[in-house]
Amino acid sequence: MSNKLVKSKAQEDKITEQQKTIIFVCSLIVLCIAFICVWTDVYKTSNAYKKKTDEMVLGVDYFQEEIEITNKRVETDENDSVHENYFLYYHDGHVNDYNKRMQVSATIYQDYQIGDKIMAYTTNHNDYSYEKYGILPQNDFRNNEIKKVIGVLLGIGILVVLFFRLLVRGL
Question: Structurally, how many domains does the chain consist of?
Fold first, then answer.
């Protein structure tokens, strides 16, 4: 008689197929809604950045100045030898002067040497960027990039939930 009680208790603890389906559908709906909300916000913010940069007036909202390159550096993550970041330093900037450097592409990095002058965008005559979008407020731009990463992770989460469901059901 005690075996019957143990079996019935174990059977009660198992999640039924209907409960599994409800959990699957609810988690898929939540992930899809979050995915759509994040990518909608990224799209709207990216369009706002583009509109803002298109409407900026040279000499009023931003300036273009010729600055002298005082140092160059290529940085790579020790765990990732594929991706390299290229930096040109200005205003006597050196390796750890993060506020006196601008990131450029590999071709721009190779085209310029220390002592050369390069045209750069600025809003305050202290911080420069080779690209026009680089002079936009950094926190807003960085937050939008983080949202893109979150959107990708949500997309992966959706695929994992779908894949898990296929494995549980047995394809």
Answer: 2
Cα torsion at 80, 82, 83, 86 (round to 10°)? 110
Question: Would 133 be classed as within a structural domain?
Answer: no
Domain that holds residue 31: 17-55+141-169
Distance from the Cα of residue 101 to its chain's centroid: 21
Instruction: Return per-residue pLDDT of the chain as tens, 171 residues.
Output: 555 555 555 555 577 778 888 888 999 999 999 999 999 999 998 888 888 888 888 778 888 889 999 888 888 877 766 778 888 888 887 777 778 888 898 888 999 999 999 999 888 888 888 887 777 776 777 788 899 999 999 999 999 999 988 887 765
The set of residues, in sequence order, having a beta carbon less than 8 Å from that of 41 and lying 6+ positions away, is 147
Whether residue 134 lies inside any domain: the answer is no
Is 38 inside any structural domain?
Answer: yes
Same domain, 51 and 68: no
Q: Which amino acid is at 52?
A: K
